[in-house]
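Annotated sample (chain length 48).
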Amino acid sequence: MSLNGQTLPSPYYLQDDVQYFPAGPEFKLPREAAALRAAKAEEKLNQR
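Output written by the structure step:
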């Protein structure tokens, strides 16, 4: 709600339901990183 240039909270903010988003993993690509490490290790073994 905006009144004379002010942004005010909803008059119903005390009754609003609170949305909670649980924290996810910080690193979003663990499977891809594991696959890259495995490929690099395999390549190293094949070079010998």
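Annotation: The first helix runs from residue 30 to 47.
Annotation: The first strand starts at residue 2 and ends at 3.
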